[in-house]
Design the sequence.
């Protein structure tokens, strides 16, 4: 169902977030993420004027992950920033993502390593979309790995959203082994 028709309005700002996923020849996967902010009007920044349409932020983050969705490499780039010479010096900090798992408390560990002055607010915000993007991009490969492993536990996607709650009808239908029938109250 689409959103309802909006009240009369004028555009002011666009934030575009994109993530592209790539399978590499060496068996690893790359996630290339970008966040881009533009204004529909000229703005005055302390560092100078920014004309309408030119990005205020254009920040990129690439993580390389293995088949278990562990980050084995990371890099960041700041192509457009409001404070040149300052904002664009934080990229090396994003190497701190190496060693994190996208499936095991990633956002918590991200916050510990790169929140506030430890990182760039926008790059850290961008990193938060990586777990779900990786799952969408590589779920079929990860599921094939899990299916081949007889000791694999409960599928990671279960009980992480409304539709796939353990006591819900979707889990009962598609994952009956893991279904928890709701107890009548």
Sequence:
């Amino acid at each position: 169902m689409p959103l309802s028709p909006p009240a009369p309005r004028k555009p002011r700002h666009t934030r575009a977030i994109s993530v592209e996923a790539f399978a590499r020849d060496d068996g690893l996967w790359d996630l290339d993420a970008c966040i881009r902010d533009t204004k529909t009007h000229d703005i005055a920044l302390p560092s100078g004027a920014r004309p309408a349409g030119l990005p205020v932020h254009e920040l990129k983050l690439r993580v390389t992950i293995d088949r278990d969705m562990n980050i084995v490499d990371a890099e960041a780039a700041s192509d457009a920033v409001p404070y040149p010479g300052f904002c664009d010096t934080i990229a090396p900090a994003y190497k701190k993502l190496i060693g994190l798992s996208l499936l095991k408390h990633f956002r918590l560990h991200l916050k510990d390593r790169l929140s506030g002055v430890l990182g760039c607010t926008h790059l850290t915000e961008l990193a938060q979309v990586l777990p779900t993007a990786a799952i969408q991009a590589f779920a079929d490969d990860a599921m094939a790995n899990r299916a081949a492993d007889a000791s694999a536990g409960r599928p990671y996607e279960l009980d992480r959203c409304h539709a796939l709650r353990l006591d819900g009808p979707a889990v009962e239908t598609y994952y009956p082994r893991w279904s928890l029938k709701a107890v009548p109250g």
